[in-house]
Design a protein that fits this description.
about 325 residues; alpha/beta; Rossmann fold; 2 domains; 6-stranded mixed sheet; 4-stranded antiparallel sheet; about 30% helix; globular
Length: about 325
């Protein structure tokens, strides 16, 4: 009997398709993931003073085109690990910054009991610890003193914060830094530059160390001493460097043009507001061939808020 292949063609194609699907599905199977953490600030938009409730299932994390699985979302104020906070003063700052120490002391004393606060001074590319991390906030606030008005031979706030992060105790506590500086890298400066120039390479180095160690870096501008401290172009470069470092690590950078602010209080109030609305986010990230930062994008469909965090997270190699 003659076989009618035309009528059986759809059935044969269907069987062929079914044989191909498993192979394609295997090729597109989800990549191996690894658990990571990052700190996220819940920012209330507009004039709405009430913070909407955001739950774990409301947080969307994407790495490239892949949506990642969120496994944890805990308010930092309720986290068992607590917070380590370092306040760093640039020794190259003008002594007039001492007029802001009242606001800084009030900020330190207002921290929750489970927050440890330390105070350090940036000079010669290192940090001199004036007060190690402690829950005695009054003791920490008393460690504030006037800067030496000298940056030393290797004056770079970026090298200094790298030095601090590398010496930070390796524990599970969340880390925040508040740098009071003009952001000028006096170690890398040369006279051949005129006007705006590329940022110090130490900005990127500090960003990578901060992302690897889970450190959020914030900054408040105060004018420095000497010729560079009064140079508009160098001030702008310094502010750009600190803004980039804050953006990439999930922090905030405050400045009012090239001038000193009348008061640090509005900035410190904004920082405290962010501290009070910080969350520890846990999710499954896709590692690369080498350990390093992986870019992620956070969002939520909850109206009236945005999620502020570092633009990448450190992921160990698979």
């Amino acid at each position: 009997m003659k076989t009618n292949w035309i009528h059986k063609l759809p059935m044969l194609l269907a069987f062929a398709f079914l044989g191909i699907v498993p192979a394609q599905a295997q090729e597109k199977a989800p990549a191996t993931t690894t658990p990571v953490q990052m700190t996220v600030t819940l920012n209330v938009l507009g004039e709405n003073k009430r913070t909407p409730e955001v739950n774990r299932e409301d947080v969307i994390v994407r790495q490239g085109h892949d949506r990642l699985r969120v496994t944890g979302w805990e308010p930092l104020r309720e986290a068992r690990t607590g917070l380590d906070l370092f306040v760093l003063i640039d020794e190259a700052s003008s002594p007039v910054v001492g007029s802001q120490f009242g606001d800084l002391r009030a900020f330190i004393n207002a921290q929750p009991p489970n927050t440890k606060v330390g105070v350090g001074y940036m000079r010669n590319g290192t940090v001199q610890i004036a007060q190690d991390l402690t829950t005695d906030h009054e003791q920490a606030s008393k460690a504030l003193r006037l800067p030496m008005a000298s940056s030393g031979a290797y004056g770079s706030p970026y090298l200094s914060v790298i030095d601090l992060m590398k010496r930070w105790p390796d524990d599970s506590k969340r880390r925040e830094v508040v740098m009071v500086t003009d952001g000028i890298d006096r170690f890398r400066w040369t006279q051949r530059y005129r006007g705006l120039r590329t940022l110090s390479p130490d900005v990127d180095s500090a960003s990578r160390v901060a992302q690897r160690t889970g450190t959020t870096i914030n900054s408040i501008f105060t004018r420095g001493v000497g010729r560079l401290g009064g140079n508009y172009w160098e001030i702008t470069n310094g502010q750009n460097g600190m803004a980039k470092l804050a953006e990439e690590t999930g922090g905030q950078s405050f400045y009012l043009g090239p001038q000193n602010p009348v008061s640090f209080k509005p900035y410190l109030d904004e920082l405290q507001k962010g501290f009070d609305n910080k969350y520890v986010l846990e999710f499954q990230a896709i590692p690369g061939q080498k350990s390093g930062p992986q870019y992620v994008k956070l969002s939520t469909e909850v109206a009236g808020v945005e999620l502020n965090a570092a633009n990448s997270v450190w992921v160990n190699a698979r």
